[in-house]
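Lab notebook, bench 4. Still working through the backlog of constructs that have no structural model yet. Next entry is a single chain of 138 residues. Request: give me the structure tokens for it.
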Amino acid sequence: MRQQKTLRQRIEARIARKRGDDVFLPREFRDLGGDDQVLRVLRCLVREKRLVRLGCGVYGRAVVSRLSGEPILYSPNGFPGAARQALTKLGVEWEPTDAERAYNDGRSTQVPVNSVVRVKGRFSRRLSDGIRELVLER
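Model written out:
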């Protein structure tokens, strides 16, 4: 007889399957179990350095740094890309700032370094990976 997978194994399998996603919300796993159980598994994965907590109810894929041994966010586009993906998943309308648009259009040679996003509407959560924090513009 086949043994049924635990909730943790099912969540880990779903995270592994979603290669294009670097950010996960607990509501994506709601069909697997109750809210408290899902949050408990996600907290356990954060403790084991397999996920990074980016904010309230927002988790990112992580790898362990070779230098410090601490978990760091794993995203091809870095923290700004993961934060924008989180905003999109949360249903928040956002757009790039004027400085970023000017650089992308070739009107400026100054590279925007800070993670700044213009938010349309109400949004007050803080998104951070422990090193950088997303700055919101109104």
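Notes after review: The longest strand covers residues 58-64. The helical segments are 7-17, 35-47, 78-89, 98-105. Flag for follow-up if needed.
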